[in-house]
Write a sequence for this structure.
């Protein structure tokens, strides 16, 4: 048994597994109107943010998630000028979005302002682009905001949410995806963090089915490592408002004027390769849908 004073452990009951990090102490704890936020100092992963008992990010490996949620979709859309991020309160995805010079405006809509304020204190590297004149931070219900977004006003929507429970549950519904579809301009793209392909295949299947029901026409799931999340393997799923997803702009990705830690044109191409079990599961889903 690990001593809880020395280790932070997240247990994935349904999967029969757990993940632990050795900690030096708890740096922050608060209960907001929406959730419990904690920050720990770890021995080898820097600061660790935990929300409602679930690991969110660490100083050491957050670039994997933030880069793979932002860069593939932005290098797939031919001209991503207007971007909205639903969730993303730690601002790491916003920072990656703003590395793209063609982005003219980036709205971040998160229901809990305290996540951003805690990130400013303990993860200042993630919030370094918050003062970019192209950035707007809104602290309100992203579901309600999307309901009111003008039709055709966005090129890319990034759903940087927590797991589909609590405040984030409504971000995984046909109704929400329908509002996203309406808010996107022709050729618009949506991307959503889509959990572990090993543990949560049913959630990914639900995203495909619900976005398809909302009018999205094509999908692609990207796979990447994520050390501190259940199973250590994560995904992001893209959907196109109309028509086939365009091929990603590989030459632009290879010549990106910014430095990344994980993302590259080669990684992008590799991340689109589907495991055999994934292909079989979605072939079965397509047969059931027909």
């Amino acid at each position: 048994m690990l001593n809880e004073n020395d280790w932070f452990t997240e247990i994935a009951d349904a999967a029969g597994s757990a993940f632990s990090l050795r900690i030096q102490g708890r740096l922050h704890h608060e209960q907001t109107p929406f959730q419990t936020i904690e920050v720990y100092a770890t021995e080898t992963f820097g600061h660790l943010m935990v929300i409602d008992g679930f690991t969110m990010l660490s100083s050491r490996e957050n670039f994997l998630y933030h880069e793979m949620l932002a860069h593939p979709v932005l290098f797939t859309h031919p001209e991503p000028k207007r971007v909205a991020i639903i969730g993303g309160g730690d601002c790491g995805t916003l920072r990656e979005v703003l590395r793209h010079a063609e982005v003219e405006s980036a709205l971040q809509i998160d229901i809990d302002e305290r996540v951003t304020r805690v990130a400013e204190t303990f993860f200042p590297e993630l919030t370094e682009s918050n003062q970019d004149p192209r950035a707007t931070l809104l602290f309100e219900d992203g579901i309600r905001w999307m309901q009111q977004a003008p039709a055709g006003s966005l090129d890319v929507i990034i759903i940087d949410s927590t797991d589909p429970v609590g405040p984030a549950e409504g971000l995984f519904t046909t109704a929400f995806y329908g509002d996203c579809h309406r808010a996107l301009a022709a050729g618009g793209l949506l991307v959503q963090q889509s959990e572990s392909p090993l543990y949560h295949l049913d959630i990914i299947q639900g995203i495909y089915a619900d976005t398809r029901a909302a009018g999205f026409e094509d999908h692609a799931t990207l796979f990447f490592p994520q050390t501190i999340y259940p199973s250590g393997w994560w995904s992001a799923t893209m959907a196109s408002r109309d028509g086939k997803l365009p091929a990603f702009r590989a030459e632009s990705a290879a010549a990106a004027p910014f430095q990344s830690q994980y993302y590259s044109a080669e990684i992008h191409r590799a991340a689109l390769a589907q495991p055999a079990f994934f292909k079989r599961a979605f072939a079965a889903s397509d047969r059931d849908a027909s």
